[in-house]
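General statements about sequence and structure are easier to judge against a single worked case. Part of our work consisted of pairing the sequence of a single chain with a tokenised description of its backbone. The amino acid sequence and the backbone structure tokens for this protein are reproduced below.

***
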Amino acid sequence: MRKSVLLFIFILTGLSLLHSSYHIPTYKLAKLKYSGGGDWYANRSALPNLIGFCNKNIGTNFSTEEAIVEVGSPELFNYPFVYLTGHGNVQFSRTEAENLRRYLVGGGFLHIDDNYGLDKFIRREMKNVFPELSFQELSLTHPIYNQYYKFPKGLPKVHEHDGKRPQGFALIWEGRVICFYTYECDLGNGWEDAGTYAGDSPEKRIEALKMGANLIQYSFTQ
């Protein structure tokens, strides 16, 4: 029943976003709370700022407050888009992995944002959720980079760590992107309140928010 309701909500939302007015019912977006000791609560102002940017610039009508939802909670199915970030260990129990799988197969969308140090842990845990799938790097021509805002060079580089290029990976289920993973990018840092990170330019912050808006738009209309 939860799966059917979730699919119905997402279909209605997607149809609404196809109209130029982008009038949609009010939903909440959520941050995913996980176990393992990692700081799931990082980037505290990121999602609310992205929500505000989307409501102002691409016509969404999301609740201005983010929700916090645990991986194994039945409440997960209430949120069409969930955001996971952090720097350290991530651990899903078997029940949590099964719940997250049902959510994603049923129409949900997960954005994983490596805040530096998350990679080896999240890859392990997502493999437990989808043993049959592997992260695939999306090409620069993929629609996720070509929504309302155009990113011909791919993900913006918000913060530098190891001199690696930013990469966008996806888990694809039956032709649909169910999880998008931003690596070596620090996209969510760019969504945080202006002035959070010394040296970040207003232009870089807007660029990050625009890419975030693309994720939102793509997740509802793919």
